[in-house]
Design goal:
Shape: elongated
CATH topology of the largest domain: Pectate Lyase C-like
CATH class of the largest domain: Mainly Beta
Helix content: under 10%
Distance between the termini: 54 Å
Number of strands: 27
Strand content: 15-25%
Structural class: mainly beta
Strand order of the largest sheet: 1-2-5-8-11-14-17-20-23-26
Length: 479
Amino acid sequence: MTWILRFAGLALGLLALAACNPTAAETFVVNTTADTSDAAINGVCADANGHCSLRAAIEEANANPNVTAIDLTGGQTYTLSSGVLPIAHPAYITASDGQATIDANNTSPVFDITSAGGVHRLTNLNITGGTSSRGAVRIEGGATTEVQIDETRVHHNNADGIHVASGTLKLSNSTIDNNQFIGFVSSGGISDIYQATITNNSIVFSDLQMLLEGTPTVTMDASTITSANTGMKVNGSSTLAISNSVIDTTGVNCTVANGITSAGNNVTTDSTCGLAGANDDQSAERVVKPLADNGGPVPTQMPDPNDGAHNTRTCGPADSFDARGQLRAANGGCDKGAVESRPGELTGDDCIPPHTATSMVPEGNYDRCDLSGLDLTDADLTFAVLNVANLSGTNLTRALLVNAALSFADASGANFTNANLSEAVLIQSNFSNADFTGAFLFGANVQASTFTGAIWNGTVCVDGTLSDDNGGTCEGHLS
């Protein structure tokens, strides 16, 4: 789904885009992965062997007075051996049937876009292997140059991921990750960042993900920035307006925050960016999970089950799809950041099957896991997190659940025979028809939980009394 389709619900936006995005007058289908030059600039994409290479197509496009479409094959890798691909005239470079990889093989930048004007598109690409002091993708076009990058991953370059010096960038539904230098740099021009993920970049610059310097104007909406150290640095006369976004860093979110304004609905792990707009949360402890393949064209970061991003903002008219192409408003509201979690997706970090009594560990995060019907006899789940988990019919005989978090869970029909649940937090969970024979519940918090039909036989109740001394039940002794 292209950048335009993401905004299909906005009629005015479509009209504006239609006015500035002419249909390509020429289409070249690349039929070789070789990095060969065009034999002659004559309107025909053909190298010396008669094949249409990516470089030959771009060389023809640079000489074409009209917009040129260049079609790549998804799943193919186009390795550069003759230096950067210079784009001096509008071109639409798109892969069909999946992502195409353009690999500079650590010998040069990948794209240098210098055209004086017009619309350019990079869609469904993996851009990698670039080496440069300026950026794997460098945008330094004229005032009317617009570069649309959609559903593209810019990663593992020995360079900044994307550097905008002039012109306009529209970055959407894309991920910039694991580049040696800064993920996104802008020293001028205008950038519109929508549903992008910028993470794990800048190994040599203290994990800085975004740097604005000079006079760029940047807007960032529904995007995710994460780092093991620093998120952003906004210098000089730069301006950055942020909305509906996530900034989750181990270090500070912003080292310099000149020119940052909030349009609301952001969640951050500290207050260094100064985001104090409507519905901004500057005190989250953890917001998203690590970068992973969560479906969609590029890897993304799912909200953490206990974060401040899930269903914490009202969906707007442009919120049709997330960065994966999944519908927004799946759970009644919209998530902050690039990805919208759907029912069943918000699971803990350790919720990766298979689950056995020996594979599950103390302090494990099993939030929202489906563990129904499993045999977890003798499992050690001390201090484990099992909130909203499905434990219906699960065998937890002799399991250690000391200080475990088991709230809002379904444990109907579960077998807790001789299990130790002391000091566990069991708020608003369903224990209907569960078997607590010989179980130890002393000190547990079972507020608002349901125990209809539960079996109490030799059970140590929450208040320390024995069920056998209470008429064969712990009802009335659960606080």
